[in-house]
């Protein structure tokens, strides 16, 4: 059973962004309306052939959902940790009877909730532009929860490492987002002319996240270009398994950093 302290910390962190929708939910909503309008209706209307039989606007939806989910999960966790350090109120949490694992899970869970809410908002916006039907619901939910938790975990590390607010901006805008944009959000691996270009893309972990969400939402995966035919249909599940293990590792690292007080006692 969850402790009172854990529930209180989780509730505080959730209310922190729920109470400021103009700062947390409106910006990604407006940004994605522009994405769908510009890249979908204007650019997509000039693309004669669908991508793997999928209309271009529909093809965009999973990638934009991933972008919004992980960006907001990362931003929420990193800002919450850094702001607590900056204003020194995180010490109240550290001196509470909560275990380090409970602290980390509360921060990760609340940040993942924000990421998932934004992901749903983006999917709803996409639904206004193009019909969407979920092909693999359970797989989609599992993937979204895992990637939201993964980047919330990364966000905690970012919040501990950052020395000023500019560091948080650099991490989100100049490291995270470029990886997503080159992670098969706006294109399919099918579009590459050479095999080396495909394998180069596979070095980007975002490719697997976008592909997994696309498989859950649309039932389409680009992994059949690189996986043996006999295993291609299991590739999205293998990706989810690897992402799950990576999430557990990152959260374990978060707990360890809290335990040794890294970045918390400056």
From TrEMBL:
It is found in: Membrane. The chain crosses the membrane at residues 25-44, 56-74, 104-126, 138-162, 174-192, 237-258. GO terms for cellular component: ATP-binding cassette (ABC) transporter complex. GO terms for molecular function: ABC-type transporter activity. It is a multi-pass membrane protein. Residues 19-261 form the ABC transmembrane type-2 domain. InterPro entries: ABC-2_transport_permease, ABC2_TM, ABC2_TM_bact-type, ABC_2_transport. Signal peptide: none annotated. Keywords: Membrane, Transmembrane, Transmembrane helix. It holds the Pfam family ABC2_membrane. It comes from the Archaea. Its main location: membrane. This is ABC transporter.
């Amino acid at each position: 059973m969850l402790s009172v302290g854990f529930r209180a910390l989780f509730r505080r962190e959730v209310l922190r962004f729920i109470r400021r929708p103009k700062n947390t939910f409106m910006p990604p909503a407006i940004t994605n309306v522009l994405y769908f309008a510009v890249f979908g209706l204007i650019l997509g209307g000039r693309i004669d052939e669908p991508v793997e039989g999928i209309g271009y606007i529909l093809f965009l939806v999973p990638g934009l959902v991933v972008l919004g989910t992980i960006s907001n999960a990362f931003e929420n966790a990193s800002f919450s940790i850094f702001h607590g350090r900056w204003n020194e109120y995180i010490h109240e949490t550290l001196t509470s009877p909560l275990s380090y694992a409970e602290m980390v899970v509360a921060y990760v869970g609340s940040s993942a909730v924000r990421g998932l809410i934004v992901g749903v908002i983006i999917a709803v916006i996409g639904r206004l532009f193009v019909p969407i039907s979920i092909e693999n619901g359970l797989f989609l939910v599992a993937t979204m929860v895992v990637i939201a938790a993964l980047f919330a975990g990364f966000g905690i590390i970012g919040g501990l490492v950052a020395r000023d607010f500019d560091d948080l901006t650099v991490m989100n805008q100049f490291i995270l987002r470029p990886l997503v944009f080159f992670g098969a959000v706006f294109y399919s691996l099918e579009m590459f002319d050479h095999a080396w270009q495909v394998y180069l893309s596979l070095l980007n972990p975002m490719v697997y996240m976008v592909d997994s969400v696309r498989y859950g939402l649309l039932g389409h995966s680009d992994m059949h270009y690189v996986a043996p035919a006999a295993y291609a249909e299991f590739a999205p599940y293998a990706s989810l398994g690897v992402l799950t293990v990576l999430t557990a590792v990152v959260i374990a690292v978060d707990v360890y950093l809290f335990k040794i007080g890294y970045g918390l006692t400056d």
